[in-house]
Write a structure and sequence with these properties.
heterodimer; A: about 600 residues; alpha+beta; Beta-Lactamase; Helix Hairpins; 4 domains; five-stranded antiparallel sheet; 12 helices; about 50% helix; rod-shaped; disordered C terminus; B: about 130 residues; mainly alpha; Rossmann fold; three-stranded parallel sheet; 5 helices
Chain lengths: ~600, ~130
Amino acid sequence: MRTFRDIPIKQKLVIMNMAATTAALLLAGLGIVLTDSLLFRRYLQRDLSSLAKIIADNSTAALTFNDPRAAAETLGALRARTHVLSACIYRPNGSILARYAPRGSACPAVDRRDEIRFSREGVVVSQGILLTGQRVGTLMLFYDLGEIAERIKLYGSTVFGVLTASSLLALLLSSRLRTVIENPISQLVRASTLVSETGDYGTRAEKLSGDEMGVLVDRFNAMLAGIQSRDDDLKRERERFRFMAESMPQKIFTATPTGDVDYLNRQWVEFAGPGLERIEDWGWAQFVHPEDLEENLRLWRHSIETGEPFHFEHRFRRADGKYRWHLSRAHAMRDAGGKISMWIGSSTDIHEQKEKEEALRRANDDLQQFAYAASHDLQEPIRNVAVYSEIVSRRYHDLLDAEGQQFLGFLKEGGRRLATLVNDLLAYTRAGMAEIVEAPVDSSVVFEHTLASLAEAIRESQATVTCGPLPRVYVGEAHLQQVFQNLIGNALKYRNEKAPCIHVSAVGRGADWCFAVEDNGIGIDPKYKEKIFGVFKRLHHDRNYSGTGIGLAICQRVVERYGGRIWVESQPAKGSTFFFTVPRHAQPGDPAQVESSVG
Amino acid sequence: MAEDNLPDALLVREAIRLENLPLEVHMAADGQAALAFIARAEADQDAPCPQVLLLDLNLPKVDGFEVLRQLRASHRFQSIPVLIVSSSDSPGDRSQAEEFGAGYFRKPPSYEEFLKLGVVLKEMLQDKGIL
């Protein structure tokens, strides 16, 4: 059942008008009837009192002379008053002198007080009959109240008539006038329905009045205008984004916060061919190379869950069925509350670059293998030269003249230097070969091993070599020792007249460990800061500082192979500090570059 | 001794001589010859039977590790001491030698250093109870 609250406003308006009109008229009618009946009582009181006085005055003679006929005549004058039920003239002793009762009503009992008494049956008037101030009898008058009832009836029907007529009039008027209220509301309802159904924020409600409804319509329209303007902005932004996305050389996509791809630019269509709708949502997965798919899905899901940027190199199948390498990235866009509203991503074709890199890597590997094999194979003949020139010098020394001995000296020295060079070259090529480090290596243990292998040089130079707390690192033990050995070895070698003082320390810096090897040696001129890391770069040709000039190049090669960097800070004559960084965490291994041994 | 480089072979002999090690040295100039020597000793009780193998890794025809693998697979010589004498200082070669239970001596580019081979060999034979 519909309650009042749910019925349409126009019906509500009619009902309200009718109720108000009826209630007002009813109250007014009731008031008039009540007032009238009160006034009429007062009038009746006065009227009856005057009537009783006149009758009483006229009855004095009849009573004095005890003349019932005269008294009856006097009473007969009451005939004109149809509501008089009875009238009696009492003698002083209470007996009735004359009586008037047109409908046979009994006379009211005598009452010696002059009064007018209302009762349910009617009005009783008692009026003393006086002769020269002496009471000689009493007139009792009995009057019915039918007149009041008649009046009430008359008024009642009048009120009812007026009520009916005015209700009809109110109904008519409110039916006409309700449109004043109803139309603006209907306008608003129509406009809002249209907006919600068509999404057209250009719709406006018509203003029909200057009252509150008019204000409401104005506000509603202003609100629509605001939304329309924002909607236009949004559309413009969307178009701008679309234009940008379409004109970029990259493949652009957007995805919902749950990772469903909901937009792909033209480049995708051109790349993947028709049937692009199959890429939407998670359909793109079937275009990813099967070997890349699992990791791709894992990373994408991880990004969706954490909001972290997505970054992956993978192969996408082109319309011709060929796979091409792409670098895909996606970033989460967040709203003001920090909630992810969408993902925007791009995929760049890096196939050529990847192929070039691969070719370069292969060439590097080949070169590496060649250098390694060559330096390895060179060892034997060089060793033969070095060792046998020594043997000749020992055993056949006396057979040679001074010049022959000098030449043999050149041969020996040349052989020795060649052997050292080839040895260092080997170390250098080996430094570029990756070692997959599965368990972290305790660098303080590697430091101890380095000290042991440098023991003789340390003793000779009377050096103090100390270290602070050193971390565990993901660097091959042999590689780390190469770095320590070269840096500490250099610090021992390039010393001044003071005994060398060398300190090795390490601090965590972001995702890296930063090692420092500090000495109090001869220092390095700042202009050679970069140069010293080059292969065969030697600053000192002095015999005091022997070496092949490959040690720092080896260090740099090792450190860079692990994704770190190496540099030096120095003050000439005061000392140098070599810094190098290595990552704190294990690096993913590259199985193509695992060390191979050459027998 | 399996060694293809005569200058090195002479140095090894000299190192043995200088330490007065009571060894008779048989030379195999490549991997195949070394394997043939072992096969002969396996088959013929009267053929010379090596007590210790000095093995170069970079051998023609069959490389040193293959010789070592087949030696360890043989019946008679599976546990004889082996000393690898090589130019290589690759950690990979060293660890592979260790897996086969072989000693390792890297050929140094100096006469005196090279002669230390005799000491290393002597210690090895003493350890194994051969001397």
